[in-house]
Amino acid sequence: MARKREVEEALDDIEEVEETVGEAAEEESASSDDETTDDEATDDEIAPDIIEIIEEVEEDHTSLLASLGADLEFLHGDNMSFYQANKAYYEDRNYEEAVIEFQASIEYEKKSEPSGPPNAKEAKDPENPSDPEPPNDILCKSLYWMGEAYFKLDQIDQAVETFGQLSDHYSLHYLATAAERRIAVLQLDKESESA
């Protein structure tokens, strides 16, 4: 929730800066109209001031995003689907939309992943004692919460399959253990229903 508040505050700050730029451009245009007639005003006289304002806004926007840290990378255009999926899941409780957005998030993260998924089995290789790279956090979270969304939609088989992907391919991530527990609970529930 704190992250969500930070995002909302950042977006509010960005809107405020954009409004300020719009107001400044209007004031610049109005003051130019007062000083000269429409025939005398040229683009060369107005453009440098507007360009300067735009550059200031871009710098403010960039520094604002940088100050928020790496947790908000999606505001730079990276994996906006993950943000949309969380919004659909938590705020809107639209689990069908959450599944679609989590799938898009997973695809995005897989494209940006440099190699295959790190796994605990690979980490125990005696010939390669170095620790493997940690698994992609957003991808793992997307898999886990997509499984939960399937569960909310009462699509148990898809939920088990999704949790299985997380526990099988990304066993070094902390959510892999939770996914294994969810699989066990869901299978136990399924067995008790059929008995």
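(ticket continues) Second input and output from the same batch:
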Amino acid sequence: MSTNWTNILHNRFGFADAKIEAIALGEENNNYKVSHSQSQFILRVYSQEHSTTGKRHQTQIEQEHRFISHLADHGVPTPRPFKSQSGPTVFSGPDGRFFALFDFIYGSHPPIYTPEIATQTGHLLRATRNASQQFNEAPTRTWEGDTAEDYLAAYHSVSAKFSADQLSILAPLAETVKNSLGKIKLLDQGFIHGDIKLGNLLFAADEKLTALIDFDDFREAFYLEELARTLMHDLHSPKQNAIRAGAMPHMLNGYAINQHESACLKPLLQARFLYDVGSYIFNDLSQLVDELLQDRQITTNILS
């Protein structure tokens, strides 16, 4: 840690005795635990570019922070951005990267989906959606290549790599998604977290949800897409994927999904499934594709 964060935190936040330790060096951002007097915080140092949207801009991070604070005000458990002595929450560091402080919340990432964890995740998804519907701002950045149409196009671009047996299952699925695109476009839209998964959830030892973290993929999208993405995360893992772990009914119960939403969710799940198996076949993981096509939970909840 070459940057003198102790001095920077003293100048910006008035911390005279801060102790700093690295806790999570992520794929893009770096996170540190800051201990000051009787308080603890998370110092997040943002990468100079986001992997999807390109160069970061302060206005985008500031909007992300306003959204996080809005969710916290509406009962969604998430670490709030901490205001500096002068008021702002986002700053540019000496190396050109933006940084911010967040409240520290205890918890750990669960290794598998249990019925209780899935149910609470469903509650969280619904609470986030409800709060987002009251966040009335225009988006400050665009997010390309992440719609059902894009997923379908990605699948078709590699469809020649699938075996005849695999295509006998996937081709009809692609046709179903194509016929559902008009229905999907009518879904309600707003801001979503964009990456709700076990790795971005903190739970206490008694499986009580303590925090939703890492809003790096915060963006505008269909609200129901958030639920679909959460169900489809970590598809390669039988225990960390909600569907393969048999936790989908519990998550849907927690979300309190209605009949109309359920009908629209299916093609969103199918579109994402086609995208995922397309990426696996592109990377020569045909065996994983076969494993997924034979998975009982996948067959029941996506392929049927």
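Agent notes: DSSP finds ten helices and eleven strands in the chain. The longest strand covers residues 19-25. Closing as not reproducible unless the customer responds.
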